Amino acid sequence: EVQLVESGGGLVQPGGSLRLSCATSGFPFSTYAMNWVRQAPGKGLEWVSIINQPGDKTRYAESVAGRFTISRDNDKNTLYLQMNNLKPEDTAVYYCEGPGGYRGQGTQVTVSS
Q1: Which of 30, 38, 68, 81 fits as disulfide partner to 64, beta carbons 3.0 to 4.6 Å?
Q2: Residue 65 CB contacts under 8 Å (≥ 6 apart), including other chains
Q3: Distance of CA 21 to the CA centre of its chain
Q4: 61 — phi, psi (to 5°)?
Q5: On the CB side of 28, how many CA atoms lie within 13 Å of its CA?
Q6: Angle, alpha carbons 94-53-10 (nearest 5°)
Q7: What region does 77 belong to: left with phi over 0, alpha with psi -120 to 50, or beta?
């Protein structure tokens, strides 16, 4: 059974940082590219970032480029998202997305003063 469990969200002030984690199981993690996506209140799903299987190639949405960093640890079957200089518009539920579009339950990120 494919499982993805996101964690690390919370309430942070504008300009602050958070590191999200996504623990995975039930599939060969190291053989799949992985994504982070997010859903802001009242909006649709927005793609945030992708990382290739070995973790040496990444891409970002224009809205987060230069502030967010995606990474992975294939030994731990875990995906990460380091988020710096957070803005109120980054407020959303963040999901990691694996094979077949599987997503976890998400982790809430709220950026507010």
Answers
A1: 68
A2: none
A3: 7
A4: -65, 150
A5: 4
A6: 20
A7: left
User: Which pLDDT value is given to residue 107?
Assistant: 98
Burial 74-89 (b: 16+ CB within 10 A, else e): eeebbbbbebeebeee
Give the length of the chain.
Answer: 113
pLDDT digits (tens, 9 = 90+) for 67-86: 999 999 999 999 999 999 99
List the structure tokens of 30.
């190291």
pLDDT band at 47 (very low <50, low <70, confident <90, very high): very high
The token pair that represents 39 in the structure block: 């859903």
Structure tokens at 14: 């504008």
Positive/negative CA dihedral, 107, 62, 84, 77: positive
